[in-house]
């Protein structure tokens, strides 16, 4: 499902105008992005949680040249499914 699919479905099922549904979806994703940028956790009961995982820097190798390089530390968003969603997926 894409973002536009989500806005279309929201508009049809809730009887909203398309631009209102787009604003709602945009705001939700904006708040979620701001929360992750602030390094906070997002938890949606029954669905799952989003959290930033931190990875330390490490030595690596450029596969093209074979040169040893240093891979910088980084933060990556991680999603973990909730128990209810995981059970519903397993039932299908």
Annotate the secondary structure layout.
Blueprint (H helix, E strand, L loop, with lengths): L2 H12 L3 H20 L4 E3 L3 E8 L2 E4 L6 E4 L2 E8 L1 H9 L1
Antiparallel strand pairs: 1-2, 2-5, 3-4
Helix pairs in contact: 1-2
Short description:
The chain is of the alpha+beta class and 92 residues long. It is built from 3 helices and 5 strands, in the order ααβββββα. The chain has a single domain, classed as HU Protein, Chain A, CATH 4.10.520.10.
Structural class: alpha+beta
CATH topology tier name: HU Protein, Chain A
| Average residue-wise pLDDT | 96
CATH architectural arrangement: Irregular
Question: How would you write the strand order of the largest sheet?
Answer: 1-2-5
| Shape type | elongated
Q: What is the string of helix and strand elements? A: HHEEEEEH
What's the story with the biggest beta sheet? 3 strands, antiparallel
Q: Which homologous superfamily in CATH is the superfamily?
A: IHF-like DNA-binding proteins
Number of domains: 1
C-alpha termini separation: 18 Å
Please provide the count of β strands: 5
CATH class: Few Secondary Structures
Round the Cα radius of gyration to an integer and report it.
19 Å
Low-pLDDT stretches: none
DSSP helical segment count: 3
Helical content, roughly? 40-55%
Strand-residue proportion: 25-35%
């Amino acid at each position: 499902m894409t973002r536009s699919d989500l806005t279309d479905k929201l508009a049809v099922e809730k009887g909203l105008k398309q631009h209102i549904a787009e604003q709602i979806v945009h705001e939700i994703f904006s708040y979620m992005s701001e929360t992750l940028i602030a390094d906070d956790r997002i938890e949606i009961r029954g669905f799952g949680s989003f959290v930033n995982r931190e990875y330390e820097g490490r030595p690596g190798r450029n596969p093209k040249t074979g040169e040893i390089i240093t891979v910088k530390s980084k933060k990556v968003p991680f999603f973990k499914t909730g128990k209810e969603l995981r059970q519903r997926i397993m039932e299908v």
